[in-house]
């Protein structure tokens, strides 16, 4: 079986041609997306090239502290991005997001590494970094969706929440439905992916492994593991985050703080 076909600089320039066509099409249709597409193209190239060099260095270094350091950086960036999408006005949103994503990712990667993949070393970079990175990226999106949905609901239905409180409900009871709705909204993309994976499109991880010459059954086996990792991590992230966010809306007297 042929291995991975390496791409040189000329191939990457040809790939940029795809985005040049997209920019031209946007201009033709008068969409006004030319600048956004150009900036996105430049950022994609720069960020992925930097990532490639960093990972190449980490893999060559083969040190557990280096692995933990790069994962810590990725975790912090994902937490900041999710926080910005939720709210910067609510106290302690960043540590809440950071903690929720950290706990869910750590537990999920720990379970997968020690019970399923079982590499020779727990910090094996070529396993731990891609798996954790995949989980972190998805957990970030789930946290952003759940957090934004919950904050929006709390602000929109504050009168109803106060009515529940006046009737004797606890803060947790008063916001229970809004919290559940936020978690469901965050999990919906993951559930849709799980329902249609392999039927509508070949997932990115599977595609990459197939291009690298990996056996198809081995490729889909890893995809199954990753999808299940993402599902539980997203659920755990949203459960922890929404619980923490709800507490920020009430004072010590169980009164709603607007």
Automatic annotation (TrEMBL):
Record localization: Membrane
Organism of provenance: Nostoc parmelioides FACHB-3921
Keyword Membrane: yes
Transmembrane residue ranges: 12-28, 35-59, 65-82, 94-117, 129-147, 194-214, 220-241
Keyword Chaperone: no
Topological relation to the membrane, as annotated: Multi-pass membrane protein
Protein family (similarity comment): Belongs to the UPF0014 family.
Entry keyword set: Membrane, Transmembrane, Transmembrane helix
The protein, known as: Iron export ABC transporter permease subunit FetB
InterPro entries the UniProt entry points to: UPF0014_fam
Superkingdom as given in the UniProt entry: Bacteria
Pfam family, one: UPF0014
